[in-house]
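Worked example

This section walks through a single chain of length 130. The input is the sequence exactly as stored; nothing has been trimmed or padded.
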Amino acid sequence: MGRQVHLEVGGSDFYIDLLFYHLKLRCYVVIELKAGSFEPGYVSKLNMYQNIVNDILRHPDDKKSIGLLLVKSKNKMMVEYSLAGYNNPIGVANWERDITKILPAEFQGILPTIEEIESGIKERNLKSDS
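Given that input, the structure is written out below as tokens.
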């Protein structure tokens, strides 16, 4: 669906890092990319994005969106406590620097490159700092 998908909520601007639509599952997949270690606040932000997507973009026949938070590192116990109580399906995973080692051949070239992802993260961080 896109990268840096713009959402405007309550007069504030937000940007979903990556937004996909899974044809077989018939749902949106909201992906947040973080260059550093897991922080509990990331889950809240991802959950908000999912709620907005479910409310604004989702068709009545679609299932609820799935959230995926990709971080450089995580503490499993902290992740478990942070996810407790949320109704939206959210997963937290470590991202691999060289994704080509783990991606099936048919998916290579479809997803953005590592350089594009890192550039997007840096650009987004610069925007949020100003």
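What to look for: Residues 24 and 104 are 18 Å apart (CA to CA).
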